[in-house]
Amino acid sequence: MRVIGIETSCDETGVAVYDTDQGLLAHRLHSQIDLHAEYGGVVPELASRDHIRRLPTLIREVLADAKLTHVDLDAVAYTAGPGLAGALLVGASMARSLAFVLKIPAVAIHHLEGHLLSPLLGDQGLTFPFVALLVSGGHTQIMDVQGVGDYRLLGETVDDAAGEAFDKVAKLLGLPYPGGPQLSQLAEGGRPGRFALPRPMKQSGDLNFSFSGLKTAVLTERRRSADCEASQADLAAEFQEAVVDVLVAKATAALESCRRKTLVVAGGVGANRRLRAKLDATGRCHGFEVIYPPPELCTDNGAMIALAGALRLKGGWRADNGLKICVLPRWALATGANN
Fold first, then answer.
1. 162 near 243, Cβ under 8 Å?
2. pLDDT tens across 119-175, in order?
3. Count of Cβ atoms closer than 10 Å to residue 250 Cβ
4. Which residues contact 331 (CB under 8 A, 6 or more apart)?
5. Which whole-number Å values give the CA distances from 7 to 82, 208, 309, in the listed order?
6. DSSP conformation class of 178
7. Collapsing DSSP states into helix, strand and coil, what is residue 308?
8. CB atoms near residue 60 (< 10 Å)
9. Radius of gyration of the chain from Cα atoms?
10. 58: closest CA among 116, 112, 11, 17?
11. Which of 69, 199, 271, 280 is 20 to 30 A from 289 via CA?
12. Is residue 41 a contact partner of residue 111, using CB atoms and an 8 Å limit?
């Protein structure tokens, strides 16, 4: 079965073709970083318009890369939520129209389910059940994963997500958009420990997170310290260390609570090198394995949506080729994915 996946939840346009026998055949991704850099953040209307411009070309290019034509496709998978309403509608409209014309099923996919399953694109040895740490720009959650579509929420952020905190702290430090990667790069040249930042909710006794107060603590320390490059780097390093400490502590506690030996880390923040290094070291110490998606597939992409669609359909998930278009800008993963 060959499934084309379309991802347009925010500011990246992703298209890919996944084959249930051969794996990922081709994928293309267009980032809108340059488009939104002038505004210091994503402008929803501009994001939607750019998805409209890019999708037809990306679909043609992916099919050419895979040496396929439209008639070789067996299904269309698309991100139905959560995300920006306008951006989601662009992808859903294209997917539903394509499925209708080709008379093939279309399946609506939860964006975070795509992230959660994306390590299967790089490690075919991954088996259920496992614990998943989802750390993307707008989401920080821990899930107990029994199988495709069987997810139990163990904990989540009560305010800012880890990715949001990275972006907001980067803005406080005067770093250019996109802030998160810029802050991580700055932190590599700094010394954690010079500043005393809190580890919010690390000892809370549950698996929830909070990063809003950490952002405020950074602002306070920045006002106290000299505004020089060394101070900026040390503050960035301590902030990154604080976030990583909390994420690692909560993920380890979740594994112990569920008696699991495999942790899947997915989402854009999952590409952070310090987070990976500390999780790997903790895994060796506590006897659990940590699995990540391929680095190029940590951010939003069409490959993870095509894979999720293929697994859903393979498992007998209901799909159709009608023209009903429904998107869910707010959508809890633990409720399951529905068309």
1. yes
2. 999 866 789 999 999 998 889 999 999 999 999 999 999 999 999 999 999 999 999
3. 22
4. 80, 81, 82, 110
5. 11, 28, 12
6. S
7. helix
8. 13
9. 20
10. 17
11. 199
12. no
Q: Which amino acid is at 336?
A: G
How far is the C-alpha of 117 from the C-alpha of 56, rounded, in Å?
A: 26
Other C-beta atoms within 10 Å of 205: how many? 7
Task: Write down the pTM of the prediction.
Answer: 0.94
CA nearest neighbour of 131 among 151, 107, 111: 151
Is beta strand 262-266 parallel, antiparallel or unpaired with respect to 289-291?
parallel
38-49 burial, b if ≥16 CB within 10 A, otherwise e? eeeebbeebbbe
Is residue 100 scored above 60 in pLDDT?
yes
Please name each of the domains of the chain with its CATH number.
2-117+297-335 (3.30.420.40), 125-292 (3.30.420.40)
Reading the block at residue 148, the tokens are 């495709």
Locate 43 and state its tokens. 């402008």
